[in-house]
Amino acid sequence: MPVVKEDRESSWHLYVIRIDVAGLKIDRNRIIEELKERGTMTSVHFIPLYRHPFYKQLCNCDPGEFPVSEDLYKRFLSLPIYPGMSDRDVEQVAESVGDVLATGVR
């Protein structure tokens, strides 16, 4: 279960993990597919502005100009989080992520 420190509150809006893809033989997109096959739906919420259609057209930016943003974009993944999640739901998500990452290790 996610932990909230006593002096803080959470909106429980997003639960984002950063994947160490350098140690894996699969990329984030494959991880998403593997998790989906195990019943865990994920999403990618943090997309660099220059990748959004409006800004892509406006500034015609080359993603290569933003190596740090590109690196993080390829590693961020939002896991399910919602008020009605049971402890078993949380365990299932954690187990699925652990299994997928373990099978994807080089």
Please name the fourth-level CATH homologous superfamily: Aspartate Aminotransferase, domain 1
Low-confidence parts? none
Oligomerization status of the protein chains? single chain
First-last Cα distance: 29 Å
- Basic shape: globular
Given the structure, what is the number of helices? 4
CATH top level assignment: Alpha Beta
How many separate domains make up the residues?
A: 1
Strand order of the largest sheet: 1-2
The CATH topology annotation reads as: Aspartate Aminotransferase, domain 1
Structure write-up:
The chain has one domain (21-103): Alpha-Beta Complex (Aspartate Aminotransferase, domain 1), CATH 3.90.1150.10. The longest helix has 17 residues, at 87-103. By secondary structure, the chain is mainly alpha-helical. It has four helices and two strands.
In short:
The chain is mainly alpha-helical and 106 residues long. The protein is built from four helices and two strands.
Task: List its traits.
106 residues, Aspartate Aminotransferase, domain 1, 8% strand
Secondary-structure blueprint of this entry?
Layout: E1 15-18, H1 28-37, H2 53-59, H3 67-73, E2 76-79, H4 87-103
